[in-house]
């Protein structure tokens, strides 16, 4: 952003509200802007060092957020709004939201600071301290871009023994009217998930992801990120994210035209060399506010009602957004700040080095981590059943893993990432979010992908040098957590199978698992990769 756009004190006198718009609040109708007065209020947007480094985000994530922020500020100015935008070069290497608010208050002496409630607990706590610190009243309207407010979720959760997503989702369907025929769900059924578990085959036609050529604003940001955050994880270029609402809308149209019809069938599939399959790649755009969650769902519903996509695709997609996305946010605000410390299994192993380097002989993990490094993206089943599953079986600290997921994905914000990682993927909350751990042996990955064909390990073997490491790790995970899991009715069958195994077979599996974990620990301190 050119220096001439920076605001001077003289340009912003007589300010009523100083409205701070955060990097994930890039929505024209966001609550802080909804009642803004063009003449008397000043919008503040700041690129700050702490947000880029509180975890060392993937380079592509920082570039995406900064570029989207700069484009958004330019759009607001084009509408005639007064915007004070501070680039990272202007705010400096130790800048934070608090330091920039303090400076702005000094510059323009507003009557009030206004900011839409932030998405993360840590930012909320910081903002709450500002009235005392800076002596200016604060107004923090709710973030109404979500279907379900934190209060509504708490009321729904109150008195329930189990918080099952499915029941919450039905309530959201009724509330929004999405895919409803009167009081009944379209097709007579709420959930078509059983139709959505097809494995992909390499001869399927794959849509190309929607790509945007970087404009000058994005190119400036790419140079900045390379210069300032060159040592962060991940490849910065090629960079092809949409950074404006207009381009994000085009990405949505592209997905509905080319991907949605098969989204349902192949939602859980994985294919070597195909990082995106029929996924929408919209999470980063929705999470910063370039697209509205309900806007996306309504377009998907229209595609179904027009006969362009089958019901299982539209329902499967809408469930992810008004079901899972809203549900994990509800859990986050219901359970923070303690939630982040939960560790049901007491897992404490360090994150393996290969989560950064992809240097592993396990083809499934190599593929998921390589594409994470290159694209700042992996689809849900890769996150849950490849990187998440391995960490669960190997007893990796859920907090270390949480930090990794928060760093490496372009769509990662704690409110959505933490419940998915700690709750869904690691069962760290002891079953609040998931009814059983998402733990699987190599057989699952072999069924849902073609990774095993190119792997150094043999998925059919459980012991021996070439055995797929996940197989023995799976049984040892069950064995060591018997007291925590055996009474779970959804785990009963697996425990019966384990108990029926011959004692020498069980001993061999446990010995193999221990050897794998020893090797993993040695590889983390410089030994040969697993
Ligand atoms: P699609 O497969 O096309 O799904 C459509 C949309 O549904 C997504 O864009 C997203 O908005 C929503 N969605 C789907 N699943 C979920 C879910 N479980 N929770 C919330 N929203 C969902 N999603 C994030 O947005 N940010 C994260 O930091 C994040 N971390 C995750 C960590 C783990 C361990 C796991 C298992 C999942 C995580 N997810 C996260 C959920 C999901 O993996 C991503 O939303 C999805 O992969 C994004 O890709 P997509 O847009 O192509 O999604
Ligand atoms: C993710 C992010 C990054 C990398 N940088 C900024 C920034 O410099 N300025 C900003 O306003 N927001 C940024 N964000 C998004 C914030 O981290 C996000 O708004 C908070 O975590 C609240 O959810
Ligand atoms: Fe992954 Fe095991 Fe298959 Fe290799 S054999 S790709 S480690 S599941």
Task: Characterise the protein shown here.
The protein has three domains: 17-139, Rossmann fold; 150-207 and 259-335, Serine Threonine Protein Phosphatase 5, Tetratricopeptide repeat (Alpha Horseshoe); 354-524, DNA Cyclobutane Dipyrimidine Photolyase, subunit A, domain 3 (Orthogonal Bundle). The protein is globular, with a radius of gyration of 24 Å. The strands form two sheets. It has a five-stranded parallel β-sheet, with helices on both faces. A two-stranded antiparallel ribbon has the order 6-7. Mean pLDDT is 95; it is low at 1-10. A hairpin with a 2-residue loop joins strand 6 and strand 7 (184-185). The chain is built from 25 helices and seven strands. With 530 residues, the protein is mostly helical.
Keyphrases for this structure?
530 residues, mainly alpha, disordered N terminus, binds flavin-adenine dinucleotide, single chain, DNA Cyclobutane Dipyrimidine Photolyase, subunit A, domain 3, binds iron/sulfur cluster, binds ligand DLZ, Rossmann fold, two-stranded antiparallel sheet, 25 helices, 5-stranded parallel beta sheet, Serine Threonine Protein Phosphatase 5, Tetratricopeptide repeat
Main beta sheet: 5 strands, parallel
Task: Give the number of helices.
Answer: 25
Shape: globular
CATH class of the largest domain: Mainly Alpha
What ligand species are in this complex? flavin-adenine dinucleotide, ligand DLZ, iron/sulfur cluster
Query: How many angstroms separate the termini?
Result: 46 Å
Q: Can you say what the CATH homologous superfamily of the largest domain is? A: DNA Cyclobutane Dipyrimidine Photolyase, subunit A, domain 3
Q: For the largest beta sheet, what order do the strands appear in spatially?
A: 3-2-1-4-5
The structure class reads mainly alpha
CATH topology of the largest domain: DNA Cyclobutane Dipyrimidine Photolyase, subunit A, domain 3
- Give the CATH architecture of the largest domain: Orthogonal Bundle
> Would you report the number of β strands?
7
The total domain count is 3
Mean of residue pLDDT values: 95
Helical residue percent? 40-55%
Poorly predicted runs of 5 or more residues = 1-10
Q: What share of residues are in beta strands? A: under 5%
Task: Give Rg in angstroms.
Answer: 24 Å
């Amino acid at each position: 952003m050119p220096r001439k756009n920076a605001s001077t004190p003289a340009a912003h006198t007589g300010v009523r509200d100083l409205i701070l718009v955060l990097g994930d609040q890039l929505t024209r109708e966001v609550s802080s802007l909804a009642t803004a007065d063009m003449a008397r209020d000043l919008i503040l947007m700041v690129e700050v060092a702490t947000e880029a480094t509180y975890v060392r985000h993937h380079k592509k994530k920082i570039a995406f957020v900064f570029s989207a922020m700069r484009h958004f500020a330019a759009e607001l100015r084009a509408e005639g709004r007064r915007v004070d935008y501070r680039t990272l070069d202007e705010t400096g290497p130790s800048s934070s939201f608090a330091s920039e608010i303090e400076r702005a208050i000094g510059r323009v002496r507003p009557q009030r600071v206004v900011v839409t409630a932030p998405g993360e607990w840590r930012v909320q706590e910081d903002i709450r301290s500002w009235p005392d610190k800076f002596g200016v009243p604060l107004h923090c309207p709710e973030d109404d871009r979500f279907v379900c407010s934190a209060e509504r979720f708490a009321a729904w959760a109150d008195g329930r023994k189990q918080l099952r997503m499915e029941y919450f989702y039905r309530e959201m369907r009724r509330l929004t009217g999405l895919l409803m025929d009167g009081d009944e769900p379209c097709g007579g059924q709420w959930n078509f998930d059983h139709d959505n578990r097809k494995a992909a085959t390499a001869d399927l036609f794959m849509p190309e992801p929607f790509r945007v050529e970087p404009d000058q604003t994005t190119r400036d940001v790419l140079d900045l990120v390379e210069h300032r955050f060159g040592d962060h994880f991940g490849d910065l270029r090629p960079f092809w994210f949409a950074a404006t609402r207009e381009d994000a809308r085009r990405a949505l149209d592209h997905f509905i035209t080319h991907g949605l019809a098969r989204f349902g069938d192949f939602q859980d599939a994985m294919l070597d060399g195909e990082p995106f399959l029929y996924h929408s790649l919209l999470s980063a755009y929705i999470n910063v506010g370039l697209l509205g969650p309900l806007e996306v769902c309504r377009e998907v519903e229209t595609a179904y009602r027009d006969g362009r996509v089958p019901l299982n695709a539209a329902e499967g997609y809408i469930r992810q957004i008004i079901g899972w996305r809203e549900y994990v946010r509800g859990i986050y605000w219901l359970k923070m700040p303690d939630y982040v410390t939960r560790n049901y299994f007491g897992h404490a192993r360090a994150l393996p080095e290969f989560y950064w380097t992809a240097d592993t002989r396990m083809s499934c993990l190599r593929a998921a981590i390589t594409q994470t490094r290159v694209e700042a993206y992996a689809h849900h089943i890769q996150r849950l059943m490849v990187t998440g599953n391995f960490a669960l079986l190997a007893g990796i600290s859920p907090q270390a893993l949480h930090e990794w997921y928060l760093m490496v994905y372009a769509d990662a914000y704690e409110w959505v990432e933490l419940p998915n990682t700690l709750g869904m993927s690691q069962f760290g909350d002891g079953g609040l979010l998931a009814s059983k751990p998402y733990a699987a042996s190599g057989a699952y990955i072999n069924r849902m992908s073609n990774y095993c064909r190119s792997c150094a390990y043999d998925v059919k073997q459980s012991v021996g040098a070439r055995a797929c490491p996940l197989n023995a790790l799976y049984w040892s995970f069950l064995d060591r957590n018997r007291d925590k899991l055996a009474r779970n009715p959804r785990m009963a069958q697996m425990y019966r199978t384990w108990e029926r195994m011959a004692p020498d077979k069980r001993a061999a599996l446990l010995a193999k698992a221990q050897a794998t974990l020893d090797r993993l620990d040695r590889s983390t301190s410089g030994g040969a990769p697993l």
